[in-house]
Design goal:
This protein has 294 residues and is an all-alpha fold. It has twelve helices and no strands.
Length: 294
């Protein structure tokens, strides 16, 4: 029996001898890449047009509100009201950003490459979700900071006035976080169902806009209870209901009217918002566990 005659050739490859980063670094890299993707950073100029157009619009609106306030000396729009008024724009922002985060990977078939590394199955969707939440929060919170800085410069109450403005800003930022959590969880779940970005974008817009007529129909029924609970039927009005309940005068200044007429069902809206986000996140994780098992 002849001996083996095979030869191993050294063609110059060198083993990696550096530090092997763990799960936290992998998650951080996915999160940072997702955040950059949302705003088109590191991508073509075409990918930057829409996200930065939206950023420009909301910043311009905030600057305009600040300028008007400096002239008339009165609050034109509270920080929480600003988040409400920009929600329609956030819908389209999510419809473009969410498919970029997940639909492209589904269509190109690169998920097996992600999961071939020591990456827990839940980390991929959670990193993408956190990136989208952060992007929406920055989109709504950044202009609020512009409004705050303008108000701080024009106040005639010194540091006391600046402190009062800060106390108004913080609930506004928390409210922006609620918008971000609800919109991102729904948008990413819908986008994860298809690898085609156009279908994903259309589905996201449909979920937010087609639920609005349901609210309108329920709100004109002859039952006051149904009228006050009608706003649970749409994500946008659900968040508005939570804001009306939790923020009160910070969202609807006394004497100006407005807000969502939820009656005494504020806690119901709060619980519904938490359950909605939790359900969307659970379904998103389940979706990627199925994808990883293929």
């Amino acid at each position: 029996m002849s001996e083996p005659t095979g030869v191993i050739h050294d063609i110059g490859y060198q083993r990696y001898i550096g530090p092997r980063l763990g799960r936290r670094h992998v998650f951080g890299a996915l999160y940072l890449h997702g955040l950059r993707t949302v705003f088109g950073l590191g991508r073509t100029a075409k990918a930057k047009i829409f996200p930065w157009l939206v950023v420009g619009i909301v910043t311009l609106v905030a600057a305009g509100i600040t300028a008007v306030r400096s002239q008339i000396g009165e609050v034109v729009m509270t920080y929480a009201q600003f988040a409400d008024s920009m929600s329609w724009l956030v819908i389209f922002f999510v419809a473009v950003a969410a498919p970029e985060l997940v639909s492209r990977d589904l269509r190109s078939g690169v998920l097996p490459l992600y999961f071939s590394r020591p990456l827990p199955r839940d980390d991929y969707p959670l990193a993408k979700l956190l990136a989208l939440v952060s992007a929406i929060w920055l989109l709504l919170g950044g202009p609020q900071l512009v409004m705050f800085l303008g108000a701080a410069f024009i106040t005639d109450k010194g540091m006391r006035g600046v402190w009062d403005e800060l106390l108004d800003l913080l609930p506004g930022l928390l409210y922006a976080g609620l918008w971000a959590a609800v919109f991102a969880s729904i948008g990413l779940l819908v986008a994860s169902l298809t690898g085609k970005r156009a279908f994903a974008a259309g589905g996201i817009v449909a979920v937010f806009l087609m639920t609005t007529p349901i609210v309108g129909t329920l709100s004109i029924l002859p039952s006051r209870t149904i009228n006050e609970l009608a706003f649970l039927a749409s994500p946008s009005t659900l968040v508005g209901g939570v804001g009306t309940w939790a923020l009160g005068d910070l969202l609807v200044p006394e004497g100006r009217g407005g807000g969502v007429p939820i009656g005494g069902f504020g806690p119901v809206y709060g619980v519904a918002a938490v359950l909605l986000v939790a359900a969307c996140v659970a379904l998103l994780l389940l979706r990627y566990r199925k994808v990883a098992a293929r």
